[in-house]
């Protein structure tokens, strides 16, 4: 089935900007289906309605084709009359609220007189017009739905009041188009006539025939007024005929049958009013498809509060996850020390317990010792790569600083720029921080390798096929009498419950990681209302609301495990008393314990090594950015140094007795060649505070028969002395001001900021690796300090406190 979208003009009063018509063709060969051209319907419409038609067969065919097309399209528009009325009545109410919002909020924010189109009187009138039209829409809907005449009369009477109020407010103003006033007056009369008409029907139902005639007469007078004064703007012929027919019939029946007295208009009971509309306040965002382009741009105080909130959230999440992982590690250790569940599975004494077979299969599927060996082999290469990047970064700083010190020693007070050793202090502090990170990472690598070597043989045994594994486990005398005993059943039940607790923790950990709540709106609201942000109170309240239930479940899980482990140990003591004990059985049990412990260590080692690899790779990216910063500032310093040397050479060359200026090695010319020209810098204006060398005195006036000296003292490093500038009497000396590097005065290197460090991993404490947030613990005001990690880990450095270069 082939579908094509065709844009057609919407019918009147439809709020959508366009209606898409789906044309479906069920022919067999869908490749030949052609969608209609967008302009064909408009051509048909213009041909049928846009110009007068001649009275012949061709003109009739044009009308018939257009009529057939309209009849074909009509059932394909997916909107109903109820939807049409409801949408328009919501829309008019929203527009009314928008005009009131301009009047009450926008105009008060202007610091000048508003233009006439948005003056308070204008927008107030427009708001009333919108409200009247919204009420009219519900009147039309009630009429179409054939609701009770009493309700329709009240709706029409209320709409008449709204139109009347709008007309009174704008009849003496010239800020609106002239067509607005007669239309409002006509609408007022029409709505009032509708109210009288439907109230007359109600009077007839109540057998008040005189009242019926009086109300119809009033309605006929109102419509007559509209037809005589406002026929240019509205057409009421149909409604007028309808009232006339009803009035004629009512008079006829009353004259021949009822003879009821027709009361005066002033004696009639007033018609009630019913309003179904009100101004809808403007609530941002108005559009349903709105996307804030500046969502992440917030005030500094809000940004600081968000950083503090995120740190509190990270502390809470990391602490909860660490507690659960440490509890799981403890449970695994207890079970391994008791040889569970292998002990209750090993009733026969000569086969591999099922739990050991499961652990063996898992180790083999993960690659066994080959996986661990490969991961350990990659660590030194990653470490060396990071060290080389760090060494090269610091070497750039060292070389530039040494050159700066040499030139400062030679030129002394003339060398006026920030010393490199002061400028590079933040970078060197950051480099020291990185060096500390790498040193601690090496220690952690060593601990992981040592741990692996102590369990490597047992892990390798788990990688053996089942026959070889069974042969490596000593056999013992069977104890089949214990099979099916109460103690064994109790232990199995307790172990099953403990496994369920571990699985529940996995779900809790995922829930803790996945919860996300943006505090930006709360902080912005607090800042707008109070002028300040009480971050601690808001964050603690919100974190308790979001994570309170999860942290409670974490504590319940820990408490449940504690009770289970206690019962497992008691039941295992009874199991051990019943079990026959001999040397063979003890040796077999010891091997099974080692195999269970080897599996736990294998899982932790693989996780640690993968996290360590990730740590080194992330650190590489950060060190590359650090190297780029060092390279950028060194390049800028070299450019500044070259320009400063050029200024000094030119200044000294203009002095009466120029001292020799040593040429730096990097500017020296090759043997037999000329010195390369220094790079041409971008022009800059030297700061006024920089001291300038004294101006050269004017040259003496020489007699005509004496020639001035042809040369001046030459600077060191040039093969020949440059010619002194020639002067004529009265000529001014050239300005000593020189152009500098493309930077303003170089008091510091602006734009420097600390880079984030990757999350470290801890080869022993579960709370330190594979965490959703960096495990940074700090003491909040008014709170007790959190316990820090108790095991060695791959740490990460704390950024220096000073995030900018010192200004001169």
TrEMBL record:
Low complexity bias located where?
Answer: 703-731
Entry keywords, A to Z: Coiled coil
- Record GO biological process: mitotic cytokinesis
Q: Which residues form the BRO1 domain?
A: 90-331
Task: Report which residue ranges the record marks as coiled coil.
Answer: 491-518
Q: Enumerate composition-biased segments (Pro residues).
A: 676-702, 732-747, 784-800
Pfam families in the record, alphabetically?
A: ALIX_LYPXL_bnd, BRO1
Q: Which Gene3D superfamilies match?
A: alix/aip1 in complex with the ypdl late domain (1.20.120.560), alix/aip1 like domains (1.20.140.50)
Positions of the UniProt region annotated as Disordered = 652-747, 776-808
Cellular compartments per GO CC: endosome
The protein's name is Programmed cell death 6 interacting protein
Q: Which organism is it from?
A: Ursus maritimus
């Amino acid at each position: 089935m082939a579908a094509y979208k065709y844009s057609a003009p919407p019918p009147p009063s439809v709020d959508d900007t366009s209606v898409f018509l789906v044309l479906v063709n069920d022919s067999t060969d869908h490749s030949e289906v052609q969608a209609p051209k967008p302009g064909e319907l408009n051509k048909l419409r213009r041909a049928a309605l846009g110009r007068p038609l001649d009275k012949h067969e061709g003109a009739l065919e044009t009308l018939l084709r257009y009529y057939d097309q309209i009849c074909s399209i009509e059932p394909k528009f997916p909107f109903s009359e109820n939807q049409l009325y409801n949408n328009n009545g919501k829309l008019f109410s929203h527009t009314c609220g928008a005009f009131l919002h301009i009047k009450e909020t926008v105009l008060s924010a202007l610091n000048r007189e508003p233009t006439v189109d948005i003056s308070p009187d204008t927008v107030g009138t427009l708001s009333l017009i919108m409200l009247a039209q919204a009420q009219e829409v519900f009147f039309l809907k009630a009429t179409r739905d054939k609701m009770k005449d009493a309700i329709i009369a009240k709706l029409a009477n209320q709409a008449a009041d709204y139109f009347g109020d709008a007309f009174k407010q704008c009849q003496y103003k010239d800020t609106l188009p002239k067509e607005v006033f007669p239309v409002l007056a006509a609408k007022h009369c029409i709505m009032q006539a509708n109210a009288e008409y439907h109230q007359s029907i109600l009077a007839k139902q109540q057998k008040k025939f005189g009242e019926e005639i009086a109300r119809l007469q009033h309605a006929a007078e109102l419509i007559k007024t509209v037809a005589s004064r406002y026929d240019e703007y509205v057409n009421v012929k149909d409604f007028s005929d309808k009232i006339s027919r009803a009035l004629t019939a009512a008079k006829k029946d009353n004259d021949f049958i009822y003879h009821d007295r027709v009361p005066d208009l002033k004696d009639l009971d007033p018609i009630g009013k019913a309003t179904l509309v009100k101004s809808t306040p403007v609530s941002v965002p108005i559009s349903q498809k709105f996307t804030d382009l500046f969502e992440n741009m917030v005030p500094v105080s809000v940004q600081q509060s968000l950083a503090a909130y995120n740190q509190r959230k990270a502390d809470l999440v990391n602490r909860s996850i660490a507690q659960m992982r440490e509890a799981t590690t403890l449970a695994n250790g207890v079970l391994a020390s008791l040889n569970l569940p292998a002990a209750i599975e090993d009733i026969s004494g000569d086969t591999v317990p099922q739990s050991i077979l499961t652990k063996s299969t898992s180790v083999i599927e993960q690659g066994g010792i080959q996986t661990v060996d490969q991961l350990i082999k990659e660590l030194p290469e990653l470490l060396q790569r990071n060290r080389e990047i760090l060494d090269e970064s610091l070497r750039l700083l060292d070389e530039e600083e040494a050159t700066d010190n040499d030139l400062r020693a030679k030129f002394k007070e003339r060398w006026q720029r920030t010393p490199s050793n002061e400028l590079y202090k933040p970078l060197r502090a950051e480099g020291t921080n990185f060096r500390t990170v790498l040193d601690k990472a090496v220690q952690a690598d060593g601990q992981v390798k040592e741990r692996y070597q102590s369990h490597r043989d047992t892990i390798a045994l788990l990688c053996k096929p089942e026959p070889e594994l069974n042969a490596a486990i000593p056999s013992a005398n069977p104890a089949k009498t214990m099979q099916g005993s109460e103690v064994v059943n109790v232990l199995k039940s307790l172990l099953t419950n403990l496994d369920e607790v571990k699985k529940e923790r996995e779900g809790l950990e995922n829930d803790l990681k996945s919860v996300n709540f943006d505090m930006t709106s709360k902080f912005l609201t607090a800042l707008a209302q109070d002028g300040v942000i009480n971050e601690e109170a808001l964050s603690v309240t919100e974190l308790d609301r979001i994570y309170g239930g999860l942290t409670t479940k974490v504590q319940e899980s820990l408490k449940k495990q504690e009770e289970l482990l206690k019962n497992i140990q008691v039941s295992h003591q009874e199991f051990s008393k019943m079990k026959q004990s001999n040397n063979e059985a003890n040796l077999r049990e010891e091997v099974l314990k080692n195999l269970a412990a080897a599996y736990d260590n294998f899982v932790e080692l693989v996780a640690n090594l993968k996290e360590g690899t990730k740590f080194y790779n992330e650190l590489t990216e950060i060190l590359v950015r650090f190297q780029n910063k060092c390279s950028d500032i060194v390049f800028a310093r070299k450019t500044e140094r070259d320009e400063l040397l050029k200024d000094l050479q030119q200044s000294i060359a203009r002095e009466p007795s120029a001292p020799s200026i040593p040429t730096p090695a990097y500017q020296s010319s090759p043997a037999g060649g000329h010195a390369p020209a220094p790079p041409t810098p971008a022009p800059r204006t030297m700061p006024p505070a920089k001291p300038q060398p004294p101006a050269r005195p004017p040259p003496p006036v020489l007699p005509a028969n004496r020639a001035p000296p042809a040369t001046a003292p030459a600077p060191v490093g040039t093969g020949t002395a440059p010619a002194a500038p020639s002067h004529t009497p009265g000529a001014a000396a050239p300005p000593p001001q020189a152009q500098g590097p493309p930077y303003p005065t170089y008091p510091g290197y602006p734009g420097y900021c600390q880079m984030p460090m990757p999350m470290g991993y801890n080869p022993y404490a579960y709370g330190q690796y594979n965490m959703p947030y960096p495990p940074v613990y700090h003491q909040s005001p008014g709170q007790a300090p959190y316990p820090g990690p108790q095991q060695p880990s791959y740490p990460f450095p704390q950024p220096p406190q000073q995030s900018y270069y010192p200004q001169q």
